[in-house]
Design a protein that fits this description.
By secondary structure, this protein is α/β, with parallel strands linked by helices. It folds into two domains: 160 residues, Aspartate/ornithine carbamoyltransferase (Rossmann fold, 3-Layer(aba) Sandwich), CATH 3.40.50.1370; 148 residues, Rossmann fold (3-Layer(aba) Sandwich). It has eleven helices and nine strands. The protein is globular.
Length: 337
């Protein structure tokens, strides 16, 4: 624990402002995990840990206003940001149902105009939208920082930071470890986390997808570019024996917005090969840590909840501190043209 929690945070904030003067990435907005460097991830993890240990929010952040624009339903991300905003001594504005606002296809107001207006009524925008690229479109017209809280099947960068923070906490380090993705590999949480794993020197990334959904080609290409070993298996028995951590996802996420594979009809249930139960974990004597960005369906049975492997509720607890770290850094920017 730091002897003085104020000092490292002040230094981190000064360093962040200096970085924004010298490079374009993560200067104004957080739209993609691809914009983050290992220095960004390390710094944000340290700041999140500071907040977890009780560090006070920076004085120049307290009292600011964050607009939460959720055009897509959300529980953890919405309430996670809201709890982080409150913990920083800030305020939130927004609508319970953004689909009923003027910024929808029926009323015709563009996302660009929505951003131009709301960024003049707040100090930051957090947006979740069903369209790929929605956050980027808003950022181009916003005069305040924009955080992508999930845009269609594209990205969810703050969840990836939460996942890295949680993986580091559970494993000690991700370097040299085998990380598995269980379930539908097409989701935005998977894409953003793979972008960050390229920085962590994992030994390998294992995908355990349904047979009917291939792993997105861009993820495989990125892992190859960074010379990270990649395997594809079709039964969680393999990573239970051989991986250090398993990041689960629902077996089929087509209902979120992507059309089902041609000729494939979702069974609306997870087959045994892709489901975790306490019996299965204990029978395998598996030490693999189990994570999940949530919400879970039937891919992780509630019987797993009390096992030492289960990290998904701790992952939720840690998410507040990571989002505090991201909000704190970007709220210190102020207005820009």
């Amino acid at each position: 624990m730091y002897a003085s929690l104020q000092t490292p945070r002040d230094l981190a904030r000064t360093d962040a402002k200096e970085r924004r003067l010298t490079r374009p990435e993560f200067q104004k907005h957080l739209l993609s995990a691809k914009s983050l460097t290992i220095s960004d991830v390390d710094r944000l993890c340290r700041t999140a840990e500071d907040f977890e240990l009780g560090a006070l929010p920076p004085a120049d952040v307290v009292g600011k206003t964050v607009a939460l624009l959720f055009f897509q339903p959300s529980t953890r991300t919405r309430m996670g940001f809201e709890s982080a905003v409150v913990a920083l001594g800030c305020h939130t504005i927004g609508m319970e149902n953004m689909a009923a606002s003027r910024s929808n296809t029926r009323s015709g107001e563009t996302l660009e105009d929505c951003a131009a207006v709301i960024s003049r009524l707040s100090d930051m925008i957090v947006v979740r939208h069903h369209e790929v690229g929605a956050a980027e479109r808003m950022a181009k017209k916003s005069v305040k920082p924009v955080i992508n809280g999930g845009d269609g099947w594209n990205e969810h960068p703050t969840q990836a930071l939460v996942d890295i923070f949680s993986l580091r906490r559970g494993l000690g380090t991700i370097r040299g470890k085998s990380i598995c993705f269980g379930g539908d590999p097409r989701g935005r949480t998977v894409r953003s986390l793979v972008h960050l794993l390229r920085l962590e020197n994992a030994r390998e990334v294992v995908f355990c997808p349904p047979q009917h959904y291939p792993v997105p080609a861009d993820l495989l290409e990125m892992l190859a570019e960074y010379q990270i070993r990649c395997r594809i298996v079709h039964d969680l028995a393999v990573p239970l024996r051989e991986s250090d951590a398993i990041m689960m996802a629902p077996y089929d996420m087509s209902d979120i917005g992507e059309p089902a594979a041609s000729g494939y009809v979702s069974p609306r249930m997870t087959p045994e090969t892709h489901q975790l139960t306490a019996e299965r974990i204990l029978k395998a004597n598996s030490k693999a840590l189990i994570f999940h960005p949530m919400p879970r369906l039937d891919e992780i049975d509630p019987s797993c909840d009390d096992l030492p492997n289960a990290m998904y509720f701790e992952q939720v607890r840690l998410s507040k501190f990571m989002r505090m770290a991201v909000l704190s850094e970007l709220l210190s920017i102020g207005t820009f043209s």
